[in-house]
Protein: Short-chain dehydrogenase
Amino acid sequence: MTHSLKNKVVWITGGKRIGQEIAKALSELGVDLVVSYRSSREEAEKFSNAFVLQCDVTDRKSVEEAVNKIKEKFGKLDILVLLASIFKPVKFEDISEKDWDANFAAHVKGTFWPIQLASRIMPAGSHAVTVADRTALGKIYPGYLPYVVTKSAVAALTRALAVELGPKGVFINSIAPGPVLKPNDISEEEWRAIRKESIIKYPLTDDEAVQEFVDTVLRLCSVRSSGSVYPLDFGHL
Structure:
């Protein structure tokens, strides 16, 4: 059970795919919603009651501008949900510097800059939720090495940030999910194989997996703990 989130100011980075489901759930709870996008404004604008911002979370200046706009509009930020991510398969022998840079930027910089800059306007008792991956805690899947490494960095970053943000009274935790929604970059066959390998003890549908992800985010928006990485792998570990 979550505490009331009504009238809390919530910023979601990444307004498409699962971000839409989280935004919908939060809207129904009466929050003041901020949704930022990098390039897909149309997806972010599906929520007519949201304050929509263009923001490249990998770019510090862009994030600072977004935070200033949130401060100007609402005066504060209570909850930060960091969803921006990339998930592209790449063979070990084909990994390039570009692959490393893209994954590091999306997952490490894209987590750190929003938290560093938004924490300036987050009062004591605020929350941040990051998204790592089940591979940070358990079994590794092949073909995604830069993704696996940088998502594991998100888990470590979350624990370190809990120490840094503790004196400010800001709580931060992470979800380490298994596969939830099919990435656009892989085929249906590849996705079915990943899901079959992942959903071992609990044969959840895609819709059920998404709902569990959303419910976990909502819980972490009000918990009185910090620095934890919560596995959401449906029995994989």
About this structure: The chain has one domain: 9-231. The beta strands are 9-13, 32-37, 51-54, 79-82, 127-131, 171-177, 229-232.
